[in-house]
Amino acid sequence: MSRKRITAAATVLVLATGCGAADMTRQASPFANAQGARTVTLSVQSWVGAQANVAVAQYLLEHELGYRVDTVQVDEVPAWDALSQGRVDAILEDWGHPEQEQRYVRDKRTIAPGGDLGVTGHIGWFVPTYFAQKHPDVTDWKNLDKYADLMRTAESGGKGQLLDGSPSYVTNDKALVDNLDLDYQVVFAGSEAAQITQIQQFAKEKKPFLTYWYTPQWLFEKVPMTEVKLPPYKEGCDADPEKVDCAYPVTPLQKYLNADFAKDGGSAAEFLKRFRWTTEDQNQVSLMIAEQKMRPDEAARKWVDSHESVWKRWLP
Fold it and tell me: What is the pTM (predicted TM-score) of this model?
């Protein structure tokens, strides 16, 4: 899926919210000129796991370290540009952007690694477990065409539907369908929220479906899904976007900081480097935001109140 920023002391940290949103890379923090302001601007991406990261980081930066936190919305790739320029100071959940890593981390050195988030991400194709239990062979990609008619929808043009989320997500699905010669059409729901709504509706009606999805994600607790085995991932098998014919890799999710901020960002930068939690932690907050409809700050406060032994280790 491949699925953003913070500054402190006399600097500004920008956090971006979401794939599919307008490019806000030219927008500076409204607090940038406030004399003596301890401001952190965070980038919030559109998927709820990333929103959970930001909610907890923001809450602790504000309530424990005394920063004012601003949030800004930036898509995945433009966020790297903004981070390099210092308009954004930290990416809290990156799913792997090798071109940007080479350009900004290794060549220009305007972005610095911020360490592991502690969560391992994986993108794949999934079917509902209730369908996989009745048709176990559907979990092998070689048998998907056998069920294409059952996966057909009004949007898939006479083929089976492979449901994707936002068109702005990094995905190999169109190339995979072509290169594996599958009788399927990629259909974009438009966003993670829209995709979740569609999956929940299919599940309510006990209909079969094939969807691009990812772990960690709270929805698995509500709609159990089973992964379809694609051809095994091997290093370099996805190097050419037009020729991809293998599964998505398993990705330890990373944080990145603006290089100047990483060096001079004081306690905010040190806090973000230390920020590291588990898949279970992230899913707890995500579930509160997405399923229980709590405000992100409320969900963050509830998690913080019951996990002091975890977040105390992040404080400088």
Answer: 0.77
